[in-house]
Specification:
The longest helix is centred in the middle third of the chain and has 27 residues, at 78-104. The protein is built from ten helices and no strands. The mean pLDDT is 81. It is an all-alpha fold and 202 residues long. It has helices at 9-23, 29-36, 40-46, 50-57, 64-67, 78-104, 113-123, 125-141, 150-171, 180-191. The protein folds into two domains: 9-57, Homeodomain-like (Arc Repressor Mutant, subunit A, Orthogonal Bundle), CATH 1.10.10.60; 64-191, no CATH class.
């Protein structure tokens, strides 16, 4: 009977992810083994190559993403919903961007479709946009938002949040989790392009 695993795969991948982020994609499997308290042979029994370990370590998604669907739209106006959605979206981006930047720096990574697929696994921009568009269309049908293209608005909104999160990550500014009230001014700037005709500016 073999020796029991000292750590499970999820713990090992978390350690590997941190090592690759700290050292970069050129970190050695021996670095991961040392940090995990395992032998390299033990790692290679689970992951055949360093590249397999690297990409497995960065294949997990942010749990915050699932929380976007949990926002109860019936308890919000469009503007307060956008602030709540925006806060969670920014927090998601701030968590996954270090992973995306590390993947992009991998020496064997191409800069074509393969890289885009890896980025999409983490960004999940398509799913986020689809959810936001669905909510906005519901309000559009009730006249709660203006006649402008809600799909374009959703894309611009998420791109702006993504850029905001990227700047914060690159600046090394370690901030506390984003809150809806922190996003309200940001939402207000974009809201004027979405508010229904004749509604007050404030």
């Amino acid at each position: 009977m073999g020796r029991p695993k000292l750590i499970d795969d999820e713990q090992l991948l978390a350690i590997a992810r941190q090592v690759f982020r700290d050292v970069g994609p050129t970190a050695k499997t021996s670095d991961v083994a040392k940090a995990a308290g395992l032998s390299e042979a033990a790692i290679f029994k689970r992951f055949k190559t360093k590249d397999a370990l690297f990409f497995a370590a960065f294949s997990q998604h942010s749990p915050i993403l699932g929380k976007l669907a949990e926002i109860d739209a019936t308890q919000h106006t469009p503007r307060t919903y956008l602030a709540a959605f925006g806060a969670r979206a920014k927090e998601h981006y701030r968590q996954v961007l270090p992973t995306i930047l590390t993947i992009a720096a991998h020496p064997k990574q191409d800069y074509g479709e393969g890289l885009l697929r890896e980025i999409h696994k983490h960004n999940r921009a398509g799913e986020m946009s689809a959810l936001l568009v669905m909510r906005l269309r519901e309000w559009h049908e009730r006249g709660a938002v203006g006649p402008r293209n809600v799909t374009h608005f959703a894309h611009i909104f998420l791109q702006a949040i993504h850029t905001k999160a990227l700047i914060e990550v690159l600046s090394g500014n370690d901030q506390s989790p984003a809150q809806p009230e922190d996003m309200q001014t940001f939402v207000d700037v974009l809201w004027h392009g979405l508010k229904p005709p004749g509604s007050p500016a404030q």
